[in-house]
Write the structure tokens for this entry.
Amino acid sequence: MSSASLQSPSVSSLPSGRSLAAWWQALPLTLVFVLFFLVPLALVLMVSFWDFNQYELLPGFTFKSYIAIFEGCGGGGEMCTTFKTYLSTLKFSGLVWLITLLVGFAVSYFLAFCVRSSGVQTLLFVLCTIPFWTSNVIRMVSWVPLLGRNGLVNQALTGSGLVQQPVEWMLFSDFSVVLAFVHLYTMFMIVPIFNSMMRIDRSLIEAASDAGASAWQTLWNVIIPLCRTGIIIGSIFVITIVMGDFVTIGVMGGQQIASVGKIIQVQASYLQFPLAAANAIILLAIVLMIIWALTRLVDIRKEL
Amino acid sequence: MAIDSKEVLTTTAPVQRRNVLKGTAGILAAGVFPAVHSADPIVLRYLGTAVNQDKDIAEKFKSDTGGKIVIQYVAVTTDDVLKRAITSPNSFDLLDSEYFQLRNLVPTGNIKGIDTKRIKNADKITSVFTTGKVAGKTIGDQGTAPKKVIFLEGEKSKTFASSPTQYMSLIPTTYNADTLGIRPDLIKRPINSWAELLNPEFKGKASILNIPSIGIMDAAMVVEAMGIYKYPDKGNMTKKEIDLTIKTLIEAKKAGQFRSLWKDFNESVNLMASGEVVIQSMWSPAVTAVRTKGIACTFQPLKEGYRSWASGFGMPSTLTGAKLDGAYEFINWFLDGWAGAYLNRQGYYSAVLETAKSKMEAYEWAYWMEGKPATKDIKGPHGDLLAKAGETRDGGSYEQRMGAVACWNALMDENVYMVQKWNEFVAA
């Protein structure tokens, strides 16, 4: 629906014959979009206002699910589960975003500006994707023998006499969750940032240097502003993935760290679909707000 | 469908592509498949958890029936079995569900009562299911004990019968008594109570399973063993009792008692085998899996008793004709001994003991069911060594283990509230 309406201003100015063809061209994607995205989303919204018992959904209109989610959130004292969970999810999003941005930017910078030959560039870029040749779950699980109580790192530490007791905070902790996220998702930052960097006109950098700018000044005033689109697109990828994730947090956090995705999954598997739907709607609203704020910073459509 | 069209394409491979397409279109248009497919076997889609869906069982059944009935496994998690049985009852022909799930399933009318007159060994099904007794002694029935939900008023009934009837909701397949698993080599002292799970001695080395409906039962066993509270019915707590149980768990979690929680069978194996955890809720085949790696692991009998579970075959109410007959034939075959012996050798228990006994060697029966020391090495169904000669089974005989059951996996009336509080525990 909305993808069609986005196109209408440019289409209307064209001759009518071409306009019709454009509509036809947009139709398949629009249909897929409506059928597999908008309709299910509308259903989720609808179900979030339904009631339910142990084994069936009861159509109706009630705010029960939303009220249940925020139960106990108004009062003082300890924070309610919902706020705590969202806060923890937001904390991970923020941390992972910051680290993947720094690492991703550094890697892209190296690939785009320090490697001269395009052959080597391609080779190194493909090298970055190698971890993606195995499944997501395997990449996560493989941290366990490395970071565990009897893992390689602890064996090395105790073996070299640096510590007496094995270090326990490396696994099933916030640290291991962030580590796995960074490992899994830095690529999503590298690709768009690298792409924007490759499109920067090299003569601009020469001009900056001719005008007497230091390397830092060039980076801050020329390269970063021109990479904004890549940074924002990468950020959207990373933040939306981390906000909705429950598998990584589950495996790396030893199932002891809450995430919004996990709560939704548990509720859905216990047939509490209205509660799960209400949580999904709230999560969606928050993610949309974050994306909206990010796109305020850069007009992605214009820059692409 | 997918398999059929693939066959059409491969048999006509040398023919030009266009002709193949035409041919396929013709077949589709006519709505018939080539003559080869007219003798298709009856395919039974078997919905259940992967743990119960053994390839050997399906293959043995296929060869025993001359290939006229084929079992097609649909493997999902415990929670998803119920979800699918309720939301898409036409996506399977045979259901393998746990008894505690019946409280949600039967009122939907999605499964039909199974006529025990068509089940040859129905009267030989162990008394654990029908009367809740082992060797004449009544066992614990807190929670959803099978005897409360096994009989239906009629074939199309949505309510449970209080006394035995002709119709069963599920025909039992397998069941067991669960307890804590421990690493005796790392604990180095006897463990005999559920209370040890929250003993600060094992701080950072304990785990509990993160499946709310089962985890809460383990937690309740612990709370009772610690002497904090005695539940009238652990399997059906009031909101206050749920609050108390979760509060105990949260306090332990905040003190750093749990190294990790687990949701998947394999996770529990890894936690134990790697030594991250030395005491945790565990399932019998997981203990076996740790042992086959050569690591000491005990399925520790505890003085408060076991938490038991049971699963069985159900039939969707829409099942008719040849598929219905096929389902009855499969269930009859299943109770006939071979499958029962196969399950017994994995450390589960089969529903009809005498038929399983006839398919097991005497020394196997003595080890698995009578709690006697093994006279020969005990091997699993796939030939891997499970116990050396001289060892005895953890917990002893069938009567000792099943006789010491304290409660059953359950679905509480306050299930929604329980899941909400469980999420609070995970978030704490």
